[in-house]
Specification:
Blueprint lengths: L1 H10 L7 H25 L2 H33 L5 H27 L4 H27 L10 H13 L35 H9 L13 H11 L3
Helix pairs in contact: 2-3, 2-5, 3-4, 4-5, 6-8
Amino acid sequence: MIESIYQTLAKIGYTHPLHPPATHLPAGLIIGAFVFALIAWIFNRKNLAQTARHCLVLALVMAVPTILLGLMDWQHRFGGAYLFEIKMKLVLGGILLLLLLVAVVYASLAGAFTKTVMAIYALCLLTVIGLGYFGGELVYGTKTPVGEEIKGLAAEGAQVFNQKCSVCHHTDSTAIKVGPGLKGIFKQDKFPMSGLSVSDENFRKQLKTPFSKMPPFGHLSDEQVNTLIDYLKTL
């Protein structure tokens, strides 16, 4: 079911994850709620306190589909692998749902805007920041070192690898991360998992129609693929 959704989207040209765009809704609402709440607390503005509560109600509603899309991306792009960043996002996602529920209920029952209510709003904001941090770590946290020996197209390929591949593949070993490690990949006879003979053409083919749970990368330009190949040949 999940894979069919991604395959359908890929056919119309959408190959990106579904979760990141959705996060802007609850995250923006929680940031807005905190700002409104802070102004309401400092200047005793009841109308802004009510606006803050409304923002959190909407954030709670939107957090549910956002988390569901995150779980779908996790299964599709990472094969359900329990990476540290994934674990942290799962924990923080659960904490955020609980905090939002408490904030909405407690703020309604308390009536007056209290320091406790403000503290709960602040915790919601900090949790969102934590979720954003670990989301960024999944995409940008694993840096591929670019030394003096890696220059030209290979250096450009290292940057492509950082952005598109590093979260699932090691470059310094053949150990499994989410997918197989790629050290010496172009020195082998066959590509791991697919069993295709190692060649530039088969690598391009595997990017467009990948084997097993690897997502397609047909949206990469020919130039990007060429630089990526040049980089992988240095491993």
